Amino acid sequence: MKRQITDLAELVGKTIERTADYEGDKLLCFTDGTFAYFYIKDEYDNPKLEIDEYTIGKYEYSFWLRNGIITQADIDEFAAREAEELRLSAEQARSRERAQYERLRAKFEGKPS
Asked: Which of 78, 75, 62, 81 is nearest to 20 (CA)?
């Protein structure tokens, strides 16, 4: 994934290579391989330009892939990492449930109904 600029001061002197719109927001890609993603935050009739920090999985992939921000390898790596986290989470849940079952079984084992 390309490096994202999250501080407006870092934009000074950069050359814009291309721009793209995404649901009313603006993506700026710079010639040095960095990018910035802006949106308008309109609070109490006081619009402000804000930088939105992009992380893989936050938005659908095609826009970011098409604009060279991420690669298919980035998506595959993210999907594999997410699948592993889900697997570990499910494994931990099963382990907790088994431990609870064993505690309850030990507590009630041998007691008449």
From this structure: 62
Output the pTM of the full model: 0.62
Q: What is the pLDDT of residues 76-97, one digit of tens each?
A: 988 898 899 999 999 999 999 9
Helix (H, G, I), strand (E, B) or coil at 82: helix
Structure tokens at 102: 């064993």
State how far the Cα of 57 lies from the Cα of 103, in Å rounded to an integer: 39
Of residues 39, 42, 40, 32, the one with CA closest to residue 4: 32
Q: What is the pLDDT of residue 112?
A: 56
Which residue reads 């309109």 in tokens?
42
All residues at 6 or more sequence positions from 22 whose CB lies less than 8 Å from its CB, including other chains: 37, 59, 63
Select from 4, 6, 65, 8 the least CA-distant residue to 30. 4
Reduced to 3 states, what is the DSSP secondary structure of residue 107? helix
Sign of the torsion formed by the C-alpha atoms of 91, 93, 98 and 102: positive
